[in-house]
Amino acid sequence: MIHSLFLINASGDIFLEKHWKSVVSRSVCDYFFEAQERASEAENVPPVIPTPHHYLLSVYRHKIFFVAVIQSEVPPLFVIEFLHRVVDTFQDYFGSTNVGDQLPTGQLSVVPWRRTGVKYTNNEAYFDVIEEIDAIIDKSGSTITAEIQGVIDACVKLTGMPDLTLSFMNPRLLDDVSFHPCVRFKRWESERILSFIPPDGNFRLLSYHVSAQNLVAIPVYVKHNISFRDNSSLGRFEITVGPKQTMGKTVEGVMVTSQMPKGVLNMTLTPSQGTHIFDPVTKLLSWDVGKINPQKLPSLKGSVSLQAGTSKPDENPTINLQFKIQQLAISGLKVNRLDMYGEKYKPFKGIKYMTKAGKFQVRT
Predict the structure, then answer these.
(1) The model's pTM
(2) Three-state SS for 295?
């Protein structure tokens, strides 16, 4: 029925439009403006205006014209009544719909992502540097591929209109960077400093990618001894997980999973720590390790029962790891300082780091 809807103020400005099918050009409103000029009062604008290809049906309420564009003949009173109900709905939801001459204070500002008049009793700015490492390690322990997907998430609750700068010890590590619109890109290009007026609350300041393999440190290793013998219904399974290049930080939340070959009937294993489950239907082994103690590395050892008469599996199973490391960005990225300008108070500032596994696979 209604193809498009335009909201026009008394000065003739189209400040809102909605299209339900294809977009109708604003030039269709020229016929409405001509009728408006001929009318002595706003209330005297004809409610139905025919054009060569459309009909314009309008109502005038709260100093705003609601103009509907119709492409085919319909009962005009039906459309006009519908527009009145639209206005009633707007008024119930927004209150008065009068269009003022000034922007409402405390709502909009020259910075589109931040409203004015923000006030907090406790002024705080927190930043989380989170890196997710994807890697494939071959059976000898060498890295086949490794890359890092990183983000810096912010939670900023600051009064007024603060202007922040965030600098890094080693900004050249950041590659393939995507910024929030608040970041001044030219300053980043010239000085490698993040300068921005932050949105209020939670937002993602930037995301980045580190793909240079010599820059990606592998934080954990797996020693493995998985073997199957020909013409035997038994195999050997032994893995040990340890930390590697973690800067002394604890590796926690470690979970090891491995999809065993179809010929495996059962596994009799003993973990030095944590709990394990083997599902004989799906052939999935899961070992919930927990934290890694460098003085006593966690291990899982035991035997594998194979179906009698089957040949030795063609390939050994791969091992998938999940883990996280608090207060460490595995790329080596580190925030140097956070400064605030434009406001006189001193905010509380905090930076946290975390590394976690993405798709981390060890081949055996």
Answers:
(1) 0.68
(2) coil
